[in-house]
Write a structure and sequence with these properties.
With 988 residues, this protein is mainly alpha-helical. Helix content is 59%, strand content 6%. Strands 3, 4, 5, 6 and 7 form a five-stranded mixed β-sheet that branches. Strands 8, 9, 10, 11 and 12 form a five-stranded mixed β-sheet that branches. Strands 1-2 form a two-stranded antiparallel ribbon. Strand 4, helix 12 and strand 5 form a beta-alpha-beta unit. Helix 24 runs parallel beside helix 26. It is elongated.
Length: 988
C-alpha cells in the first residue's frame, strides 16, 4: 500500500475537476483533509479511469444518499471487490440514464456484484434458461401499468448488467474484455426475452387469446443478433385461427414492450404500415411471391422466429427462406440494392454526412449493404453464406474467397469499431443516436474515447487518437464498400474479352453450367478473384481465362480444374515468370488445364514445386532422364549439406519436384508404366540413401557399416504413388566393436532416419516400413549379417522366404548389401523347390489374406490390390512359381513381377495366353491404383464407383468420356486373370 503521506493532495490528480468533488469524496469516506483516506487508493485510481470521473463521482454520491445507512455495505464491497468496482464505476461514468436507474433502485447494485460475469455463451443458445425466465417471472400474474412497471425495472437491471460487463475493462484493465459480438448478441437476447414477457402479459390482457396462434418474427438487428443498446425492434407477426384476436394480441405486445423496454416496429411487414398487422402464413407467402420488392427480400435475410408459437414461426421461415435465396435472380436486383443505398445516404443532412455513424459515408450501412448484396448474390449456391449476423457473414465471405481475406478482416474491424462507438453514444442517455461528436467538442470526444477504451499515445491526446481512428475506419469502410458494392463479381467476368462471357448474371451461370461446371456460381467467383483489379497480372488472367474455361470443360472435373488453377495462381502470384509462361506457351496452358481438371495430386505439389511448371513446355525435359539414374542429382545435392535438417529438407524438396514431374508426364500419357514405377522407386531409394548418409555424417564416429535392403514393391522397382517403402537394415561392426554395440549404433541411426523422413509434411508421406524383418515388429530393427544368417538357418518361416524374393540392396554399404543378398539366395530360392505341403501352406495363407484383409464393404471386383485378379493375385502366383522353380530357372531369380512372369513363360511354366492375361491384369491394376492416388491426392486401392472421381480415373486410364466402359474393361481383365490364377496358383 502506498504511504498516505505520498498520495496526491488534490482530487484533480484523479481526473476530478468539479468544485464539489472534494465534498462528494469526503461524504463517501474516501477523502480526509487534503489526502485520500487510507485504503481508498484503488477506488480513486479506478474512478480516475472512468470515462467521466466527475459523472461517476456524482453517481456515487447520489447512490450514497439513496442507500442511506446501507451505503456502508456498498462502500466495503467497492474496497474488496475489484470486479464490482470496475463495473459500477464504469456504468456511472458512462451513462446518466443507468445512473438514474441505480439511484431509483439503489439495491440493484448487487446485480453487478455477481461472481460470474454475463457470458454470451451462457445466454445465447438457450434463452429460456437465462433472460426470459427472469422477465417472465417479473410480470407473472400482472397486467396493465403494473406489468409495464415490473418489466421496465427488470429489463433495465439486466441492461445495466450487460453494460457493466461491456465497460468494466475500461476502469479495471484486469477485468475480462467482452467483445462487440457478444454484447450485441446479449442485447438481442434480452430484447427477445422482453418480447416473450410482453406476449405473456398480452395473453392475459386480450380476451380469447387462446383462440389464435401467433408467432413473432424478429427482423433487422434483433433478428441478426446484433442489436444496439437503444434501437427499435423490428418484427413481423404471423397468425392462425381468429386473426382479429391475433391482431389485438400483437398490438398488446407492441404496447407493453414499447412502454416498458423499447419501441416495437412492425413496418417491415407486407405492404408496410398500410398492411395488416397480422397475416396468415399463406398471406405472407402470396405477398412475397407476387408483390414483394427487392428491399423486402433483403430485410428477410435477417428474419428469425423469437416468440410465440414455435411451430408456426418455423413454418414461416420454411416458406420465406427459399425466396430470399432466389431474390438475386430478379431483374435489376443488383441495381435496385445499389439504388436503395444511395437513397438512404441522400436522406442524411449534408452537414452531418461525415459524422453519421449509421447512414453516412463510411458508416455502418455501407458495411451492411455490401455484405448483404454479396450474401444474396453468392448465397444461392453457397449455404455457408446464409448467416444473419454481419460480422459472421463477413468472415464467411472471406473464407469462401468472395472477399479477400484482408478486406474481410479490415471490414470486420472497422464495423466493430463503429458499432462500439454507437453503443457508447447510446449508453450515455439511453437515447437512439448515431451522431459522432463534432471535431471541436473536445469534452465529448474525450469522454467517447475513454468509454471506447482508447488512450493517449504518440503525443496525441485521447480525443485526437479517437478522431484519427474514426477517420481511418470510416475511410476504410467507404473504400471497401465502393470496391465490393459498386463493382459486383459479374462485372469483372463481363470484362473478359470474349463474346462468350459478356453475359448477364443468369446467362453466365447457364453457360458455365452448359460447359459442364457443376457450380457455376463458384466458377464465377474464381473468375472474379483472378481478374480483380487493373494490374498487369489481372489483365493477363483476363486474356487467359476464356481459353482455360473451355479447356477445363474438356476435363473430367472442370470445377476442380478452375479451383486448382485459382489456388496455383494465388500461390504463385508473386512469381514473376508464371503468367508470362502461360501467356507465351500454349502447350503449357493445354497441359496444365488437363492436369488440374483431372488430378488433386498435381496441384497440391505444384504450389510447392513451381519450378516443374516450365517443363510442361518441353516434352523431353518432362519425360526426363533414364529412370535408373533419376536419384543421382538428389544424392549429389544433399551431400553438400553438413546440417542434418537442411540435408533432409533438400531431399524432400528434390523428391517433391521429381514426384510432380513424373506424375505430370504419367497423366499426360508421355511415359510407360515401367518408367513411372522405376522412377518412383529410385526417387525413394535416393531419399533413403541421402537421409542415411546425412545421419551417419552427423553421428561422428562410425561404429558399424549399414546396408539398406529394399523389399516388396520397392525391391521390385514397382512402387506406386501411394506406396510405403518396405525395407530391412543390416549392419556389420567396425573393427574392435562388439555386435551388440554395433546393433545399438545402427538402430539409433535407423530410428533417426525414420523420424526425419516421417516428420509431418504437406508432401505425400515418406513412411519407412520395416515389418518384413525377422520376427516382424517384435524383432530387432537392425541385425548383423551373422544374426540374419543364424535366424534364416534356424527359424525362417515360409512367408519370410516368400518376402525375400523381392529383396535387393538399395543403399548404404554396397559390399555388405551384396553379401546379404548372396546369403539369402538359398533361403528364397530353395533347392529342389517346394514340396506339396509348402504349396498347400502358401495357398492357405493367400486364402486367409483374401478373406481377412479385404476391407469391409469393398468390392472385390474393383479392389486393385486384394480384389479378384488384382495385384496380390498376380504377384502371389509369380512368387509361387519362383519358390517352386527358381533353383532350376535362373530367369526367375528377379524381384520384378513382370520379369518373373516373362521368365516363367520362356521356361514353359506358363502359356503365352495365360502370361498375357496375368500381365494385362497386373499392369491395369497398377495403373488404376496409381490413377486413384493422382485423382484423389491420397492413397487408395478401391476404384471409385461413380461421379467425377471415376470419370477422372477413367480419363487417366485412357478411357476419356467412358467411365462405365473403363470399369467393364477392368472387371473383364481381372476376371480373365482370376481364371488363370485359379488354375496355376490354386491348381483347380
Amino acid at each position: 500500500m502506498t504511504d498516505p503521506a505520498r498520495l496526491p493532495t488534490s482530487p484533480a490528480r484523479f481526473g476530478l475537476t468539479e468544485s464539489r468533488s472534494g465534498e462528494h469524496l469526503r461524504a463517501a469516506g474516501w477523502w480526509e483533509g487534503r489526502r485520500p483516506s487510507e485504503g481508498n487508493e484503488p477506488i480513486l485510481v479506478a474512478l480516475s479511469r472512468s470515462p467521466d470521473p466527475d459523472l461517476a463521482l456524482r453517481g456515487v454520491d447520489r447512490l450514497r444518499v439513496a442507500l442511506g445507512a446501507r451505503w456502508a455495505e456498498l462502500d466495503q464491497a467497492l474496497r474488496d471487490d475489484e470486479a464490482l468496482r470496475g463495473r459500477l464505476l464504469a456504468v456511472l461514468g458512462s451513462s446518466t440514464a443507468l445512473s438514474d436507474f441505480l439511484v431509483a433502485n439503489p439495491d440493484r447494485w448487487r446485480g453487478l456484484a455477481d461472481a460470474e460475469p454475463v457470458d454470451a455463451e451462457s445466454f445465447a443458445p438457450t434463452l429460456a434458461e437465462s433472460f426470459a425466465p427472469t422477465l417472465v417471472a417479473a410480470v407473472e400474474g400482472l397486467t396493465g401499468t403494473d406489468a409495464v412497471r415490473a418489466l421496465r425495472v427488470e429489463y433495465r437491471a439486466l441492461l445495466c448488467r450487460i453494460a457493466a460487463d461491456d465497460l468494466a475493462h475500461v476502469v479495471e484493465p484486469e477485468q475480462r474484455y467482452v467483445n462487440y459480438d457478444d454484447v450485441a448478441s446479449l442485447l438481442s437476447d434480452l430484447a427477445v426475452a422482453a418480447l416473450r414477457a410482453a406476449l405473456d402479459v398480452a395473453a392475459r390482457q386480450v380476451p380469447r387469446s387462446d383462440e389464435c396462434r401467433l408467432a413473432v418474427i424478429a427482423m433487422g438487428k434483433c433478428g441478426a443478433r446484433e442489436l444496439n443498446y437503444v434501437s427499435d425492434v423490428d418484427v413481423v407477426f404471423v397468425g392462425e385461427g381468429d386473426l382479429g384476436v391475433a391482431t389485438r394480441l400483437a398490438g398488446a405486445v407492441m404496447q407493453v414492450a414499447g412502454q416498458a423496454c423499447f419501441e416495437v416496429d412492425a413496418a417491415l411487414r407486407p405492404e408496410g404500415k398500410a398492411g395488416a398487422l397480422v397475416r396468415t402464413l399463406d398471406g405472407h407467402a402470396t405477398y412475397y411471391q407476387r408483390w414483394a420488392r427487392t428491399w423486402e427480400f433483403q430485410a428477410l435475410l435477417k428474419a428469425r422466429p423469437v416468440a410465440g408459437d414455435d411451430e408456426l414461426g418455423q413454418r414461416y421461415m420454411d416458406v420465406v427462406r427459399p425466396l430470399v435465396w432466389t431474390a438475386a435472380e430478379r431483374e435489376n436486383f443488383v441495381a435496385d440494392v445499389q439504388a436503395m443505398r444511395r437513397r438512404v445516404e441522400d436522406h442524411v443532412p449534408a452537414g452531418l454526412t461525415d459524422r453519421e455513424l449509421k447512414l453516412g459515408r463510411g458508416g455502418l450501412r455501407d458495411v451492411e449493404f455490401a455484405v448483404q448484396l454479396l450474401q444474396l448474390v453468392h448465397g444461392r449456391g453457397d449455404e455457408e453464406l446464409r448467416i444473419t449476423t454481419t460480422t459472421q457473414a463477413l468472415a464467411a465471405l472471406g473464407r469462401g474467397g468472395y472477399i479477400g481475406r484482408a478486406d474481410a478482416a479490415d471490414f470486420g474491424r472497422a464495423y466493430r469499431f463503429l458499432r462500439t462507438l454507437e453503443h457508447r453514444l447510446q449508453l450515455q442517455r439511453l437515447l437512439r443516436t448515431h451522431l459522432f461528436p463534432a471535431d471541436d467538442d473536445v469534452a465529448a470526444l474525450r469522454w467517447l474515447a475513454r468509454a471506447a477504451g482508447l488512450q493517449a499515445e504518440g503525443g496525441l491526446s485521447e480525443s485526437q487518437v479517437l478522431l484519427a481512428e474514426f477517420r481511418k475506419r470510416a475511410n476504410q469502410v467507404r473504400r471497401l464498400h465502393e470496391k465490393l458494392f459498386y463493382r459486383p463479381l459479374l462485372e469483372a467476368v463481363a470484362k473478359v474479352p470474349t463474346e462468350g462471357l459478356r453475359l448477364t448474371t443468369s446467362q453466365a451461370a447457364a453457360r458455365l453450367s452448359a460447359l459442364g461446371y457443376a457450380a457455376p456460381d463458384g466458377a464465377l467467383k474464381h473468375i472474379e478473384a483472378l481478374t480483380r483489379g487493373v494490374s498487369r497480372r489481372a489483365r493477363i488472367q483476363t486474356a487467359l481465362l476464356p481459353v482455360l474455361l473451355d479447356l477445363f470443360a474438356t476435363t473430367p472435373d472442370p470445377d476442380r480444374g478452375l479451383l486448382a488453377y485459382r489456388k496455383v495462381s494465388e500461390a504463385l502470384a508473386e512469381t514473376p515468370w508464371y503468367l508470362r509462361l502461360l501467356r507465351d506457351e500454349g502447350t503449357v496452358v493445354d497441359r496444365l488445364a488437363s492436369l488440374l481438371g483431372t488430378s488433386k495430386f498435381v496441384p497440391d505439389l505444384l504450389v510447392r514445386a513451381p519450378e516443374v511448371l516450365p517443363l510442361l513446355a518441353d516434352t523431353d525435359a518432362l519425360v526426363g532422364r533414364d529412370p535408373m539414374t533419376i536419384g543421382n542429382p538428389l544424392r549429389s545435392a544433399v551431400s553438400r549439406y553438413s546440417d542434418l535438417d537442411r540435408a533432409v529438407t533438400a531431399a524432400r524438396s528434390l523428391r517433391r519436384q521429381e514426384l510432380l514431374r513424373v506424375a505430370s508426364a504419367d497423366l499426360l500419357g508421355l511415359v510407360p508404366l515401367r518408367t513411372v514405377c522405376v522412377s518412383l522407386s529410385e526417387v525413394w531409394v535416393a531419399v533413403l540413401q541421402a537421409a542415411l548418409d546425412a545421419v551417419v555424417r552427423s553421428a561422428g564416429e562410425r561404429l558399424a557399416s549399414i546396408a539398406v535392403i529394399g523389399m516388396g514393391r520397392l525391391g521390385g522397382r514397382e512402387l506406386g504413388y501411394g506406396s510405403d517403402a518396405d525395407v530391412m537394415f543390416v549392419c556389420e561392426p567396425a573393427a574392435g566393436v562388439t555386435d551388440s554395440d554395433a546393433a545399438r549404433y545402427a538402430s539409433s541411426v535407423v530410428e533417426q532416419v525414420r523420424r526425419l523422413l516421417s516428420a509431418p509434411s504437406q508432401d505425400p508421406p515418406l513412411q519407412v516400413d520395416t515389418d518384413l524383418r525377422p520376427e516382424g515388429r517384435q524383432g530387432p530393427l537392425v541385425r548383423t549379417l551373422d544374426s540374419y544368417r543364424a535366424y534364416y538357418a534356424q527359424w525362417a518361416e515360409l512367408w519370410e522366404s516368400q518376402a525375400l524374393l523381392r529383396a535387393r540392396f538399395i543403399g548404404g554399404d554396397a559390399d555388405l548389401g551384396a553379401r546379404f543378398i548372396e546369403m539369402v539366395d538359398p533361403v528364397r530360392y530353395p533347392a529342389e523347390g517346394l514340396d506339396a505341403g509348402a504349396v498347400r501352406e502358401i495357398r492357405r495363407i493367400k486364402a486367409r489374406v483374401e478373406a481377412e484383409r479385404l476391407p469391409r464393404g469393398a468390392d472385390p471386383s474393383t479392389h486393385t490390390k486384394l480384389g479378384r485378379g488384382g495385384l496380390a493375385d498376380v504377384e502371389w502366383t509369380v512368387q509361387l512359381l519362383q519358390l517352386q522353380h527358381a533353383f532350376e530357372v535362373p530367369g526367375l531369380r528377379t524381384p520384378s513381377t513382370v520379369r518373373g512372369l516373362r521368365a516363367a513363360t520362356e521356361a514353359g511354366l506358363v502359356s503365352e495366353d495365360d502370361a498375357t492375361a496375368l500381365t494385362d491384369a497386373w499392369v491395369m491394376a497398377t495403373k488404376a491404383r496409381n490413377a486413384v492416388v493422382l485423382v484423389r491426392g491420397k492413397a487408395g486401392d478401391q476404384l471409385p464407383t461413380a461421379g467425377r472421381d471415376l470419370a477422372a480415373v477413367a480419363s487417366a486410364m485412357g478411357h476419356e468420356g467412358d467411365p462405365g466402359g473403363f470399369v467393364d474393361s477392368y472387371r473383364r481383365t481381372a476376371r480373365r486373370a482370376r481364371a488363370v490364377i485359379e488354375r496355376i496358383f490354386y491348381g483347380s
